[in-house]
Design a protein that fits this description.
single chain, alpha/beta, Rossmann fold, Arc Repressor Mutant, subunit A, five-stranded parallel beta sheet, 12 strands, globular, binds calcium ion
Length: about 220
């Protein structure tokens, strides 16, 4: 499996490279944003580990450019900043997960395994719930006639909710199925993704479809009453 690491701090880049090589990954390191983007665009990487603060181009900008070109390579963001705004911006652009520095390498490796395991599950049956439709073959989502753009992770969460429409999907199930069982994904990451998903599928004035079942999980169904 090939991993691209984009990290400008020489020592951190080297430590990451060594830790990943020891796990038998093939590792390429880029030390500035432009080099990182150009390597990422040559493709062939299974996972991209992306620092946010980089010379040349920020990690956010690299992720944005890749996703705008429909490159769905899993992205794990590294951020020194632990603000909700940064977290939400990174996830909304299309990062699949993030780690706040400093982090343990065991956690990093678990996250890499989790994001790389995930992939689209082709099932050519259209799903429909209260005017919200999803075509798993084309990965197109519509609410009525409005087309909805979702990142890979947003899509994975919505697909799980739609396949269990009307039933509660527990937080543990969502985390397990979307991020993998052995990862210790932060609980607030799931909440951040749900918030983003709501802004995508629920426009002002439209019925809310994602219902919170407090302390348990989420359910996709039209709002009661
Ligand atoms: Ca940096």
């Amino acid at each position: 499996m090939r991993i691209l690491v984009v990290e400008d701090e020489r020592r951190m880049a080297e430590v990451l490279r060594q830790a990943l090589v020891e796990e038998d990954y093939l590792v390429t390191v880029a030390m500035d944003g432009r080099e990182g983007l150009s390597l990422a665009q040559t493709g062939g990487f299974d996972v991209i580990i992306l620092d946010v603060m980089l010379p040349g181009l920020s990690g956010f900008e690299i992720a944005r450019q890749l996703r705008s070109r429909r490159d769905q390579t899993p992205i794990l963001m590294l951020t020194a900043r632990d603000s909700t705004k940064d977290l939400v911006e990174g996830l909304d652009i299309g990062a699949d997960d993030y780690l706040t520095k400093p982090f343990s390498f065991e956690v990093l490796l678990a996250r890499v395994r989790a994001v790389s395991r995930r992939g689209p599950i082709p099932q050519p049956v259209c799903l429909e719930v209260a005017g919200l439709t999803m075509n798993p073959a084309t990965r197109e989502v519509h609410r009525g006639s409005r087309s909805i753009e979702l990142t890979r992770t947003q899509y994975a969460i919505l697909e799980l909710l739609m396949r269990s429409a009307g039933r509660v999907v527990t937080r543990d199930t969502l985390i397990e199925r979307v991020w993998g069982g052995d990862t210790d994904i932060a609980s607030n990451t799931l909440d951040a993704f749900i918030r983003l998903l709501r802004t995508r599928i629920e426009e002002p004035g439209q019925a809310r479809l994602i219902q919170t079942v407090r302390g348990v999980g989420y359910s996709l169904k039209p709002e009661a009453g």
